């Protein structure tokens, strides 16, 4: 009835065929199979590695670079990180090379030390040493005779970045358990303290030493991080496989790394489980409960399509399996029983409640059974902690903090319980230059009129039920948007163009945020362009000619 010509020839109608393409796995299915969660433009998490919104995922067919590099996102023009297959040694700028001399040497790279005579030369007396003495010792070890091979100029100094000297490495290794991140933090605070007092030369010298120490820490921990990365490749793809011996066996250094990855995975997912449980129990309403929800758990769950697992029913499935895998590893004597004493102690110590009981178990049971004395075990724990602290926070931060708690608990009643850093980094002696050796005066800034800070300072909180009429809300939103973005939208007289002249005034910081601090002191700019270099003003030429220097042999 008039439709014949509208019906095409049946031979030209495409016939549906069965596709061989499998449906996309859910996020939980990807995690349970040991894969990373796949999301467009974002590197999702896996059971052994974190999600990252700053990392640049590989395009289809693109080969993963050998070392981590910074690339430009073609869609946004923003610099993003592209993770490499290997850890980069910042001294050489190349991938870390593990020793070819055998597994014993690789274990030594994982937990490095120094010969007894070197240790005797550089070792602190922790019972009496002070922070100034530590810093001076570090400075002396890092300062070596240098020579510019082009000009023949010789001088004493810290090698230009990114070079290091053997004495500095020996010094750090001899005192690794007493240096680490607390020395990093102390040097950073002292550099800021000198700046805040406008002591430019001292601030520049501290900045150079601080950056050099960070480089030493990165260099020393690089083999450890590479071995852990290799272990992630063993554990992650085998998630759910309780035949741990089939993929966690190997040389001692490999099994040690496999255990640390398994234990970190357990600690990380137990924390995620506790966060998910807490979120379930927080009432869903306004006010303080809303704030509690905001600061509980991983904030990446607020992304439009979160690249993580965070719901209680899903997290619980992963944490139970992670616990089973770690328990299966520990139950295999061939895998676990000959691990380093400090690593085995972690497993057994976490089942003991109370500091006194823990120290009693360590001294009366664990140390005799493992042929180690208490001081050596405590030192090993602290060295392990320093290595773990150089790993990424997610997923290794939870186990790292557990290690720190064990270090503190086992040191009670010994000379090692004394913490020379405390008064420099904990503000325990007040907030004045006279009584706090780590204090520096912060200050407020004259933020631009279109800055987010000024927008947030001036925005009015519209509480639920008190917003007023729609016109009132609209006027407030328009006013705040104009302040932040510099243009108006919606409403008003559209028939005429109006030029709005806003007089620029000095920014008055709200008192509840200023809390009595001075305004625009300017000391953060004290070092100026020198902040981009590794040395002071007089070292600019040498810093740019880092490839021309050589250590003078004595």
How would you sum up this structure, described in words?
- A 3-stranded antiparallel sheet has the order 8-7-9.
- It is 46% helix and 5% strand.
- The chain has 554 residues and is mainly alpha-helical.
- The longest helix is centred in the middle third of the chain and has 36 residues.
Order of helices and strands: HEEEEEEHHHEEHHHHHHHHHHHHHHHHHE
Which strand order do you get reading across the main beta sheet? 8-7-9
The main sheet comes to: 3 strands, antiparallel
- What structural class is derived from the secondary structure elements? mainly alpha
Given as residue ranges, the uncertain stretches (5+ residues, pLDDT < 50) are 1-8, 460-470, 480-492, 532-548
Name the quaternary structure.
single chain
Please indicate the percent range of residues in DSSP E strands (runs of 2 or more): 5-15%
N-to-C CA distance: 106 Å
DSSP E strands, number? 9
Number of helices: 21
The 3D shape can be described as: globular
Summarize the structure.
Helix content is 46%, strand content 5%. By secondary structure, it is mainly alpha-helical. The longest helix is centred in the middle third of the chain and has 36 residues.
Helices and strands, with pairings:
Blueprint: H1 27-32, E1 38-39, E2 42-43, E3 69-72, E4 79-82, E5 88-89, E6 94-95, H2 103-110, H3 116-122, H4 131-142, E7 144-148, E8 154-157, H5 166-174, H6 180-196, H7 200-235, H8 245-248, H9 252-281, H10 288-294, H11 312-331, H12 333-336, H13 341-349, H14 355-370, H15 374-389, H16 393-411, H17 422-425, H18 452-458, H19 470-485, H20 511-514, H21 540-544, E9 549-551
Antiparallel strand pairs: 1-2, 3-4, 5-6, 7-8, 7-9
